[in-house]
Amino acid sequence: MTSAAPAPDGGLEAVTRPTAGMQSVQDSQAVLAAAARRVARLERDGALVATGFLVGPALLLTAGHAVRLDLGASGAAPVAGMVAVFDHRDGTGLPPAEGGVRVPLVELLDSSPPATDDPEAPGVPRVPDGLDFALVRLARHPRDTDRPRDHYLLLPEEYAFGSGVLHVFHHSQRRAPDHAQTTYDRRTADGRRVRYRGTNTLQGSSGGPVVSDGGALVALHHGHRTTVNEGVPTRLIAERVLAGPHAALLRGTFAPPPTRPASTGVTAIGRAMGALLGPWRAYTTVYGPAGEPVRVATARAVAEHFRHSEPPVDLVIEAARAMDVRVGDGAVTAAVLAAALIREADARCAAGAAPGEVARGAAAALQRARAGLARLARPCAHPGAVARAATADRRLADAVTEAALLAGPDGVLLCEPGATRDTEAPVQRPGVRLPAGHALPFTADAPGTDPWTRRTRLVRPYVLLLGPATGDGEAFRRLRGRIGTEGGSLLVLAAADPADPRGALLRGLGDPADGPVPTVVRIDAAPGPHGHRLRSLALLTGATALTEDSGLLPGTAWFDVLGRADLAVVSDADTVLVGGAHDPAARRRWIASARARRALADSDAERAALDEQLAWLTSRSVTLPVGADTAAELPRRTALAERAARSARAALRSGTLPGGGLALLRARAALPPGPTDPGTDAVRAALGEPHRLLTGTAPPAVEPPSGAWDEDAPDAPQDAADGPEDAAEVVLGALDAASAALAAYLRTV
């Protein structure tokens, strides 16, 4: 005899409320996540007044009684002083006025006051058929966070109230966004309101969205009546808007455009960087990623405010940083151009162009623009115009120009804080620029290193010259510890084998477990007489080189083998040494000997080695002591002089181009005329951005008559002797950095 097994829990569970339905965890999470991105807290003069939510790009819907309808049914006055705060959360440690993404309300587009039988709101007019809504334009679409910030669809579609659970999202006095589910919802007899229970609301909840289980917008919450809360069906609001002057605007939101990762963040940082174009000023007020005003003076300061934005913004920041690392100027131009290129390319991709097609066209156009700029560059014998373009301080620009001419295009020029109010005459000292930078990755984080430029500045460092010697490095560890106890710094110049840059001795110096890591620079082996580079450095610093044939054992190394430098500046690409504990008489003897040996040299390799040795031993550094009226102003003024000095030296090396964005604007003449492929069109539009931001006018839309660079074309190069000038190296470097940012972005699309 057998019997059927009962179904599991068959007699224990039941559907007690058919309209409640059943929803998966994933669907619930999607509804909540959408509300978190779309719903905002509305403030007026810093105080909570209501809730609002996105119904289109930079379009927000809220309750009519939340705005000043007594000042008009449309225009700027009803929303004056109001701000929408997205992503607001408790527990941030910030006051309400500083948390979240803040976007001003700028214009009331369409509205309707409450109906005469609605709950009364003090000072708010009422009309018989009122719908209590306000459709508002925001200053901009709120920037994206981890995903595109989309919007609810305000559709003129009927919803069957009473057929399922509704969700109400709102901001109350508790500051954190709230969520509630209704337990009962019914439409009123006239169909113009929907009432629901199970939702607790407080002041500030009005204007929140009422959403179905499927995530569709169905009503606008606007108040309560005794024991129930009440909303306005959004179908009625949509019909009212579609019958008014903004019908086309609302219809444009029904089919949301493809979301792109570039979003508005790139535009925001491009605009902020653009405010810094031109001569360097003390401070400039720009708008940060959340629309907040911030005071900045450099591209680095702007980057600090945008550092937590989306990845395309990181590419713009990296373009700026690359210029400060390589040249020391042009960071703002690179960032503005990178932002414009990404924005224009993104717009073409959103319009249907394939990212690969845009990338290929843009790469070819940028190469043509670069070649045109290179042909436009003119030799520079006097960098005064370039220095004056970098700073509005004419006296400082003239002092920098004099120092740059003294140092020459490849010499060492440093701007240091002076001891007086005036910028003093340049001071010459022995100094050399070595074509080698950081050898170990640890040194980029060492004391004295600027994390933005990865440039390490060491004052009065000890210098250790290390050849291809062998040893266990224990003595170096002791020496390193002793220097650290003194509070000093150690610079290691190592001529190790490039194939094995981290032998035992270097590992002994570069192990962070033993304390602060010294700055290590690897001097590559050179053709010619063995060890001539280390011998030159020994003469300049007074150090004794530890090599296999020096007779000195690394295991016994102590302070007697160390040299000194007055100043060392190490970057990723080069190393500058200024002054040192050298013997002037010994250096003069070596210079005379090297010249005599060069006259007798019988091979090109030997002559090249002796030429390099003579260049190092005879090189001079120029230091410009910069003055200021106050101690507080001195760092900024010194940095300003340093920027102008780098630009001036770059001009001496590479020549000049028309300044003020004109060179990039005129580079469009090197592109094929007329509408071409999407990538070329994007580059053509972006090249005019620096000029547009500097002058406040749109660039001329004149194209040359042919694809070649035509000297008679309106966009062709013109004489810029009387206008501002930029170093060609800076403009070309900015174009290269921006091109790299665009290529990296298009690889991610």
From TrEMBL:
Q: Does the keyword Chaperone apply?
A: yes
Q: Which domain of life is it from?
A: Bacteria
Would you indicate the residue range of the signal peptide? none
Q: Which UniProt keywords apply?
A: Chaperone
Question: Looking at the record, which segments are called Disordered?
Answer: 422-448, 694-726
Q: Which Gene3D superfamilies match?
A: GroEL (3.50.7.10), GroEL-like equatorial domain (1.10.560.10), TCP-1-like chaperonin intermediate domain (3.30.260.10), Trypsin-like serine proteases (2.40.10.10)
Regarding protein family, the annotation reads: Belongs to the chaperonin (HSP60) family.
Q: What binding partners and quaternary form does the record give?
A: Forms a cylinder of 14 subunits composed of two heptameric rings stacked back-to-back. Interacts with the co-chaperonin GroES.
What does this protein's UniProt record list under function? Together with its co-chaperonin GroES, plays an essential role in assisting protein folding. The GroEL-GroES system forms a nano-cage that allows encapsulation of the non-native substrate proteins and provides a physical environment optimized to promote and accelerate protein folding.
The protein's name is 60 kDa chaperonin
